[in-house]
Amino acid sequence: MKIGFVGLGKMGFNMAEHLLELGHEVVAFDLSAEAVTAIAAKGAMAARSLQHVAGELPKPRVIWLMVPAGKAVDAVLDGLVPFLDTGDIVIDGGNSRYTDTVARAEKLREQGIRMLDIGTSGGLEGARHGACMMAGGEREAYDLVEPLLRDLCVGNGYGYMGASGAGHFVKMVHNGIEYGMMQAIGEGFDLLRASGYDLDNETVARVWSNGSVIRGWLMELAEKAFARDGQLGWLGGKVADSGEGRWTVEAAVELGVSAPIITGALFERFRSQSSESFSNKVVAALRHGFGGHAFQKPETGEEKA
Fold first, then answer.
1. Which residues, including other chains, have CB under 8 Å from residue 144's CB and lie 6 or more apart?
2. Distance of CA 122 to CAs 72, 232, 245, Å?
3. Euclidean distance between the first and final Cα of the chain, in Å?
4. Closest by CA position to 249, among listed 172, 187, 181, 186
5. Residue 281: which residues within 8 A CB-CB, separation 6 or more?
6. Which residue, among 2, 4, 138, has the nearest Cα to 63 in the 3D structure?
7. N or C, which terminus of the chain has less Cβ within 10 Å?
8. 10-13: long-range contacts (C-beta < 8 A, 24 or more apart)?
9. CB-CB contact of 39 with 13 (8 Å)
10. Are 158 and 133 in contact (CB under 8 A)?
11. What is the model's pLDDT at position 165?
12. CA distance 87 to 26
């Protein structure tokens, strides 16, 4: 399939490279000329503009956006839509708020353009070698791009969630659950640290990663982080709030659903901005491990990617 790809950040670049390796043709654009040059070296067609992206694609066009939520998505759509035609498909693969997605999809529908919201999980490793994707939007549009999702994802790692916004809603809740899981892991290691036993955190994480009820990728990332330094002295304990956790809590309030674990994890991230704890350092290490998220260096507070 020949596809347009807009947004070559950490996730976007890895996804575009993955598509190229699978034999798809990619017409790529980013505000960073350096990123475009780098993906062109991998075999993509370098686009000079959004108009250039649209002009190089067969109809119905399929254009995948991997840009930050909010104004960046609207800016790309405003610049792209004048060059699209009825039946074309725009995919928002970022972490947009589902209510924004519903409004954007309705606006595009009035112009005959179809929009899919595809929440993407799996971090940088998933983007490069096989992700997990949750899709919302018109079923017919989903069916057209389903072979693309099959190639991009691990086995059984993608699916159609429902009408516009459903993909981003499911991904939002996924990230809220992620907040709670990471917080529980962090608090557990904080408790171990306070126990008085001479415990090796790397050994504990390794054992828990093999055969235990709480085994999984996050625990494997904890093991790798502790292998680097058993006390995580290489990073500070401030944990950023990227938005999805807030939206999950807000949705829980609006829908009258009790979500104390996710809410508590969100509030703990707020607290981490002024009061450091070992549990927050664990969470910061996990976030850096799966998503390459920046972390604060200890003492200096300098942010490091």
1. 60, 62, 89
2. 22, 23, 17
3. 33
4. 172
5. 186, 232, 235, 236, 237
6. 4
7. C
8. 10/124, 10/127, 10/291, 10/292, 11/66, 11/120, 11/124, 11/127, 12/66, 12/67, 12/127, 13/38, 13/39
9. yes
10. yes
11. 98
12. 20
Beta pairing, strands 25-29 & 2-6 = parallel
Point out the residues that are catalytic. 171, 178
- Residues with Cβ within 8 Å of 55's Cβ and at least 6 positions away in sequence, in order, are 83
In this structure, what token pair is assigned to residue 172?
Answer: 């939002």
The closest of 40, 35, 15 to 128, measured between CA atoms, is 15
Q: Map tokens 């020949």 to a residue.
A: 2
Q: What are the start-end ranges of the H helices in the chain?
A: 10-21, 33-40, 50-55, 71-80, 98-109, 123-129, 139-152, 166-194, 201-208, 217-228, 244-255, 260-272, 278-291
Per the structure block, which two tokens stand in for 148? 């693309």
CA distances from 230 to 95, 238, 288 (A): 32, 18, 16
Kindly state the greatest CA–CA separation across the chain.
Answer: 67
Say if strands 114-121 and 131-137 run parallel, antiparallel, or are unpaired: antiparallel
- Say what the pLDDT of residue 292 is: 74
- The answer to whether 28 and 16 are in contact (CB under 8 A) is yes
pLDDT tens, the chain, 305 aa long: 999 999 999 999 999 999 999 999 999 999 999 999 999 999 999 999 999 999 999 999 999 999 999 999 999 999 999 999 999 999 999 999 999 999 999 999 999 999 999 999 998 889 999 999 999 999 999 999 999 999 999 999 999 999 999 999 999 999 999 999 999 999 999 999 999 999 999 999 999 999 999 999 999 999 999 999 999 988 888 888 878 999 999 999 999 999 999 999 999 999 888 877 888 888 988 988 887 776 777 755 555 55
Token pair in block for residue 44: 């993509």
